[in-house]
Prior knowledge:
The structure is a homodimer.
Chain A: H1 4-16, H2 19-26, H3 30-44, E1 49-52, E2 55-58, H4 60-85, E3 92-99, H5 104-115, E4 121-128, H6 130-138, E5 144-147, E6 160-173, H7 175-180, E7 193-197, H8 202-214, E8 219-224, H9 227-235, E9 241-244, H10 248-255, E10 258-274, H11 282-295
Helix pairs in contact in A: 1-2, 1-3, 1-4, 5-11
Chain A binds a DNA duplex through residues 5, 18-20, 28-36, 38, 51, 53-56.
Protein name (chains A, B): LysR family transcriptional regulator
Pfam families (chains A, B): HTH_1 (PF00126), LysR_substrate (PF03466)
Domain HTH lysR-type (chains A, B): 2-59
Amino acid sequence: MLNYRQLHYFWVVARTGSIVRACEQLNLTPQTISGQISLLEQTYGIALFQRVGRQLELTEAGRKALPYAEQMFQTGNELEAMLRAQPDEQQILFRVGVADVVPKSIVYRLIAPTMELSEPLRITCREDKLERLLADLAIQRLDLVISDSPMPTHLDIKGYSQKLGECGISFFATQALADRHPGAFPQCLQGAPLLIPGAETVIRSRLQRWFAEQQIQPKIIGEFDDSALMQAFGQSGSGIFIAPSVIADEVVRQYGVALIGQTDAVTESFYAISVERKVKHPGIVAITEGARRELFTALP
Amino acid sequence: MLNYRQLHYFWVVARTGSIVRACEQLNLTPQTISGQISLLEQTYGIALFQRVGRQLELTEAGRKALPYAEQMFQTGNELEAMLRAQPDEQQILFRVGVADVVPKSIVYRLIAPTMELSEPLRITCREDKLERLLADLAIQRLDLVISDSPMPTHLDIKGYSQKLGECGISFFATQALADRHPGAFPQCLQGAPLLIPGAETVIRSRLQRWFAEQQIQPKIIGEFDDSALMQAFGQSGSGIFIAPSVIADEVVRQYGVALIGQTDAVTESFYAISVERKVKHPGIVAITEGARRELFTALP
DNA sequence: ACCTACACTTCGTGAAAACCGAAGTATACG
DNA sequence: CGTATACTTCGGTTTTCACGAAGTGTAGGT
């Protein structure tokens, strides 16, 4: 019989990447979690983690198991939220999935308008790979997916995309790094260390085309599927990184980096994907209208 | 923090319909399960079951919670199977969903051919409402769905139906009940107590049309979405019930009932619904070919 | 090279929980 | 109205879980 508590610890450790961080989240001590996970591994005679340096890393088996656990406890959290909400009753659920390539502050600004609706919404927000989010959209476990690309056609799922807006991109670096690559933008990018979005993103290929046109060859030193992670590396001075221009001010402020330059020749778009049930969800309406009115007003 | 063990007990009790049966499955005593579920209810201050007679029934909250639990532990079971299978490695997964209106012995006969393939399959079989199965098909948590109707068009899911076969239906009753309604078939059905498939099934409406044509008004005393349940009631002598003619012999033998008559004017069809990935799953091939070759050979 | 900080592990103990036997209550059925 | 069945309640017992103390191994600075 599978021990769901142990599996839960496994999940938290896997997603936080370390036992210590899992402890903070679970209010437990490391030896407890370490022990319980060892027991789990023992039960099935298979290692889920392996030590790499002083961190833990998923083994092959662990990587296989993680999506199952993910699904289980994601559902578990929703169930718990539902059980707790029972008494006060009937606020409308609004379940949003966010593709991990979308910068968090964009997401925040997109979703913020839904918080101020007259009818109280209960918002659930989840981040994942686009494909998985769309699957959940199909079975109506999500009401809306926010992504940087419209609905792909190769999936066996119907969905309707709605463009929220489009904007140019800006380049950022720590001041020290920026000083090392002086000169006019964009020529200053020549040979500079660059962090770029992963191969699966839309903006990646546009960016590369633009570099070719400008006859600039930056030195790509990192690829990231998750924009927050990319920005974290950028903040440490590893390389120059990009973000949509609408959040340029915020990036400069929050990460303490310098704006190197910006272009509208490369644009990033954002889409709201829904199944478009007969009744439009108030949350979706708020997001699409809010995006048009406030976030992307300066653009066509 | 949600107690997953208690939730698991809740799930088993809900799906078996009784604590005692859950005990058999979990190797526990009733007082344990009863107690643990009470604790769960206490934690969230909400009843999940209510006593009806000496059985338990889901409350409104329980009904809301069940699909979540279903999802969780279904996934949990798959995970466990995967973890166990790890050592011997690489047998092809074949996950089949069966709509509950399809008689079990038909399902068995359809699936049986896959057991004898040269390449070893690991078959997972799940029974549920058609709609839920199709949702899981869309996100590739299932490879095939077997149903009595082709892919409905109103869902936001793509799927491809393939007709497995078609056959007439037969009427059955206990000998005692049959004796009470003597005479030639189908006139003997006039005024006889009848158990029929639920309103959502395809055969239901065909059956009613046929009765109208024959100018027969049976007395409908029960509707069932689950064919096994209908047959159980039929076995107890509650009423006359139907089943596809291909399994007539088996129904007579297994339930100890008499065959009253059969007609090919009302037919029941069975379909295999898949997402038709590039590569045809060996299990799907085996089922469609097996159906054509063995089960429904006598028909066009 | 060595010291310190950090992350995970091992071991033994104590507390919490889960579980069971016995007995009790309530319902269905003949 | 008695018997069988299903769920509950109430102790006591067993098992599981969690922590403190101490240990191993790695990273990084001096």
